[in-house]
Amino acid sequence: CYGNRRPTxxxxxxxAAEGVLFERAISPTSWTLPxxxxxxxxxxxxxxxxxxxxxRIAPQERLLTTVFAEHGYxxxxxxxxxxxxxxxxFGRDFEAYVSCEGETTDPANPFATLxxxxxxxxxxxxxxxxxxxxxxxTTRPFFAFVHMWDVHFDYxxxxxxxxxxxxxxDGPLDGRNIVGDGFPPGASRRDVxxxxxxxxGEIRATDETLGRLLEALEHTGALDDTLVVVTSDHGEEFRxxxxxxxxxxxxxxxxHVPLVFWARRGLPHGQRVKPFVxxxxxxxxxxxLVGIGGLANIDGRSLVPAIAxxxxxxxxxxxxxxxxxxxxxxxxxVRVGHESAIFWAKHETWTxxxxxxxxxxxxxxxxxxxxxxxxxxxxxxxxMALLAPRAGEPVL
Length: 396
Prior knowledge:
Mean pLDDT: 95
Radius of gyration: 20 Å
Low-confidence stretches: none
């Protein structure tokens, strides 16, 4: 539904065809922890402040979970990667927050599994835990948060998806150790194409898991009255701008994420919304669609007007990769209308792109003075004010 020539996502494609797809949803950054805090609070990283590897969600931050709990909803979460650990505060106001990680972990030290977690397949664990919850849930309305980790490096989809999109490859790379020799700097175009095929295989396997979760809801009759939202916290790099994995840059491949809203009743069918929107917009939109309030003074706006088919007012969407102790490598972006602009502090470069003609941001032009540069400069001042007191902190 986003243009991949391979059949990677038939379930999500169906949800998009029967619901509302946002073509240009942008994550606030290119790594898991701050992006998920933004998703669940509606606040940008520079405002919620959870931006370092060991940062926790501040007590004063209100989560989407909190609002649903206050309105009597059953709240349940399933997480499968270390940065969604209760250590960071994600378990707050969940009646059940279930680990579906591939190994037993210490909630007080999620960092111990940062490396090993990349090699596990967690979708079967999610499916099992979700099914067990469905079997025992009551008729109370529910808010379920399901975090799927497998579409993350390493790229090791289960059979038959490991050969589905590139059955003839006979090279040395198998999708493992992606941060090291499994994706070397000298990888050939053929090797990179194979890794991308493995990644697409992980998408397909996860898409089918999503389908089985929806079938479980359907079997109980709950799907008739459920709003389904599919999105992501970041993308992956495959040398589009020279890098790999994520947590490095804010080009389109790192921060352009899917965003699909689906419900059996009450939403348009087959609607596509083109303007840039932010992951911070999801929380307020979900609450408005289900008819409750409870998040004030947040950055996100409601996307209900766009869902209803009305024109969405133009609004700049920001994304940045910045961390305490690594200020000199920060990269910031703004996207609005048909333009994107990026400031890369490491190289002191200011560039812009015409995303209508160049959606992959491959043809940079110098960014002169003007509104976009002023927006980026203001954003940079805000980020530096946040980072300055934490200069010198270890990155990890």
